[in-house]
Amino acid sequence: MSDKKKVVSVPVQSINNVADEIFSITLQNQYIASHAHSGQFINVSVPQVNGILWRRPFGIHRTNADAGTFDIVFKVIGRGTKALKQTKTGDELDIIGPLGNHFSYPSDLKEAIMVAGGLGIAPFPLLIQDTKDKSIQHTLFYGAKSKDQFCSLDFFNTSVHDLHLTTEDGSIGEQGLITDSLERYLKGLNTMEGKYIYVCGPTPLLSRVKLLAHQYNIRAQVSVETIMACGFGACMGCPVPLEKPTEDGRKYLLACKDGPVFNMEDIIIDE
Ligand code: FES
């Protein structure tokens, strides 16, 4: 680990309830605010809570280099996130980061087709920030169970050129799966030149996008949501199986150390 990845204590600037049981925390740290890229994450421990042994990884949602702040988003699903939800302005969180690799932007990139399911939306505001000087089209496919599960829609409404929303119950956008909407879009394109898919979300979504990317011959990068523990390669608890072994014979890479971003064609999406 570099010096910049030591444990640091960062102050909470604010915490907001942004959707149903989904919260956003703004944290102050100039280094992360200035250097993090889309796909990277921080590992957080919540010092106030006893009995939580492992740090929890949270993708960096967006940054504000001028203010020296960055945001994470999370859904309350267990003890760690319940504790995080109780965080207050001025509390200090013990974090390590930014960790992991990030999405890459080839020189011929003309359109970033982002595909997000649920909390898989986490890296995409930062992807838009990362590429804002590149004069590319930003197209976002964002699906959730219902209207109250979307976050950052105000941001996407103003920063994305082409926004496609779906919900399973039809409460906003089209009723159905976001991958069906993506397939119709890909079918209507004349060329895949300069177009890249960036995807994050649950495994069934990743699996479908992998098939579509293959079928329509479009390159795709994926940020995996594999469960992590240590966050930097020590526990071997986050294997990502490979389509072909590496040159040194490894059949798995580690989500935390080698990822969390991979070329879609390189990895097996295990359902
Ligand atoms: Fe421990 Fe990846 S989380 S090796």
- The DSSP helix count reads 6
Element pattern in H and E: EEHEEEHEEHEHEEHEHEEEE
Q: Tell me about the biggest sheet? A: 7 strands, mixed
Looking at the structure, the CATH topology of the largest domain is: Rossmann fold
Low-confidence stretches: none
DSSP summary, beta strand count:
15
The largest sheet has its strands arranged as 10-9-8-7-11-12-15
CATH homology-level superfamily of the largest domain: Nucleotide-binding domain of ferredoxin-NADP reductase (FNR) module
Q: What average pLDDT do the residues reach?
A: 91
Q: Rg from C-alpha positions?
A: 18 Å
Q: What's the level 1 CATH class of the largest domain? A: Alpha Beta
Briefly note the structural class of the backbone: alpha/beta
Large-scale geometry: globular
CATH architecture descriptor text of the largest domain: 3-Layer(aba) Sandwich
The residue fraction in helices comes out at 10-25%
Distance between the termini: 32 Å
Beta content: 25-35%
The small molecules bound here are: FE2/S2 (inorganic) cluster
Q: Tell me the count of domains.
A: 2
Q: Features of this protein?
A:
34% strand; 19% helix; Rossmann fold; 271 residues; alpha/beta; seven-stranded mixed beta sheet; Elongation Factor Tu (Ef-tu), domain 3; binds FE2/S2 (inorganic) cluster; 6 helices; single chain; six-stranded antiparallel beta barrel
Written overview of the protein:
By secondary structure, this protein is α/β, with parallel strands linked by helices. It folds into two domains: 3-99, Beta Barrel (Elongation Factor Tu (Ef-tu), domain 3), CATH 2.40.30; 111-225, Rossmann fold (3-Layer(aba) Sandwich). The chain has six helices and 15 strands. It has a seven-stranded mixed beta sheet, sandwiched between helices. Helix 5 (178-188) packs parallel to helix 6. The model has no long low-confidence stretch (mean pLDDT 91). Residues 228-231, 233-238, 254-256 line the site of FE2/S2 (inorganic) cluster.
